[in-house]
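Team,

Forwarding the record for the chain on the shared tracking sheet. I've put the sequence and predicted structure together so nobody has to dig through attachments.
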Amino acid sequence: MFIRTRARARAATVAVTAVLLGAFLTGCAWTRTSQEPRDGIAAASPSASAAVAGGTADDAEPSNDAVGGAGPGTGSADAAGAAGNRPEAVRDAFAGLQATLNDTCVPGSSGCAYFLGRVNDELARLDKAMKADSKGPGHFKEPLAWIDALRGTLKGDASTENLEKRRSELLGTRDRINTWMQGHPEDYR
C-alpha cells in the first residue's frame, strides 16, 4: 500500500511539472527576444547586403520594415502601406551602425560571419537612408563615396570569406562614417 501511494505521489509530481513546463514554454513563444525588432525600430532587411554587395541600394528589393511601419494595432491598412513606403531616417540607420562600434571579430571565429554581415547590412541601410534624405545625397557626399569605394572593394561578393578578407576595409568604412557623423550631429539627432 505504501509503494502505491508513493508511486501516485510521484506521478502527480511529474504531471504538475509537465503542466508547468508546458505553460512556461507556451508563454515563451509569445515573448520577444532582444534580437527581434520592436515596434518603431527597423530591422535590417535581407536585401540590405545585396545593396552593399552588388551595386546601388536602389537595385535591392524594397523593404517594408522601415521605421514607423505599422505594427499590431497601429491603425488602418492604408496607414500601414504609407508607413512602409516612407524611407528610413538617417538617424535610425546610423543608430544601427553605431550599435556595431564596440564589436569586432577574429576572422574564422564563430561569430565573425554574423558580425561582418551585420556591419555590411548596416552600411547598406545607411547608404539607402542618406540617398533618400531630404538634404540630398550631396550633403552626404563623403560617407556615400566611402560606401561606394567599399562596394568596389567587395566586388559584389558578400560571402563570409570575402568579408573576412576585406574586414579592415569594412570596419574602416564603418569607423570613418561614425567619425564623420559625429561631426554632423544635426543629421542623427
